[in-house]
DNA sequence: ACGGGGTAACTAAGCGCTTGCTTATGTCAG
DNA sequence: CTGACATAAGCAAGCGCTTAGTTACCCCGT
């Protein structure tokens, strides 16, 4: 909303900010933050190098915007999954299905979200860490509520919750668009794995 | 073996090559290949920038040596686990325990092995990919042999094997030395998770 | 209808610095 | 003397980012 265009409204093809974000996502995911130059990004967005600085203070701020919106989308996805039912097993299935599909479909963005944290400034990193803690807590509460109701059986609910997230995050590392499994196939199989991991079959 | 020292034998504190490797591991893991300068590496190894080129052709060749030995160690670990027993369940437990402990204890090296592949040259990348395929196959054969003997029950043995490796690899991403769980704790819990994932309790 | 003034987006050129790597030279054990 | 190892100095190229200037478009008093 900071760049809502006063007159063109919806017919505008794509804002310069968005094109820079899209170019940054591709480049950072492919070559990493430090392996990407501001010239890579701006030329992929069809601009001169200086144009990047009209819209973002620095290369790092572009990374931060990508990372922040990516983390917030992931957190929201887990919150909605947990709110979708009162049954922990249903919550778990929704969370795993959405989380895995999100990391497969958006593997490019997800790689930046999960593997480029060390390129953030100290302040930005702290902000992102807070979102990551909230993400962990969502999954933990699903598993712990299932254990509390006697529906799940695991000797260490926190580590199991971490393993579930870990499994989903790593999909972004190995997933390929040309692969033989669709993100649906993967999400379905991972739902089955998740039920087994939490010990849902008493 | 290319730099076996003729006389000092075992009392030699550490060769220059090894110090460069150690410095490279730390730097690459902390800031990534492109975020690390040759001056970072050489000064951490207590040498001038030019000394790196006495021992390695380029910064990329140093990365390659780290990546190759790391991959080979991982492959060997899985081969030994599989050879340690005829029982697929025993093989699985040995493989998961060793693989997870290896990725926790050696998380610094493991991060380079798994997250810095795109910085390798095309030729080196192909060589590493071959080792990675062999690693996948080891785990796959454990799971498939368990299914073939009716001891494991999973609808997609290949995806389950991939998930097991994925779970272990991702330990290197989140593991911290200061964390409250030792690598033994994690390995034990992950063994339990692995048995559930493959459906070992018929 | 018109022109002056303000604003936002963008570029060409380039600054100061750092990069990976090389060269010339020295040192020292065998 | 030789050869392996190290360094000081530095090169060409590339880096993130800045500056000065141009263009396009808005509002608004006359």
TrEMBL record, chains A, B:
<dbReference type="InterPro" id="IPR001647">
    <property type="entry name" value="HTH_TetR"/>
</dbReference>
<feature type="DNA-binding region" description="H-T-H motif">
    <location>
        <begin position="37"/>
        <end position="56"/>
    </location>
</feature>
<dbReference type="Pfam" id="PF00440">
    <property type="entry name" value="TetR_N"/>
</dbReference>
<dbReference type="InterPro" id="IPR036271">
    <property type="entry name" value="Tet_transcr_reg_TetR-rel_C_sf"/>
</dbReference>
<protein>
    <submittedName>
        <fullName>TetR/AcrR family transcriptional regulator</fullName>
    </submittedName>
</protein>
<feature type="domain" description="HTH tetR-type">
    <location>
        <begin position="14"/>
        <end position="74"/>
    </location>
</feature>
<dbReference type="InterPro" id="IPR041490">
    <property type="entry name" value="KstR2_TetR_C"/>
</dbReference>
<keyword id="KW-0238">DNA-binding</keyword>
<dbReference type="InterPro" id="IPR009057">
    <property type="entry name" value="Homeodomain-like_sf"/>
</dbReference>
<dbReference type="InterPro" id="IPR050109">
    <property type="entry name" value="HTH-type_TetR-like_transc_reg"/>
</dbReference>
<dbReference type="Pfam" id="PF17932">
    <property type="entry name" value="TetR_C_24"/>
</dbReference>
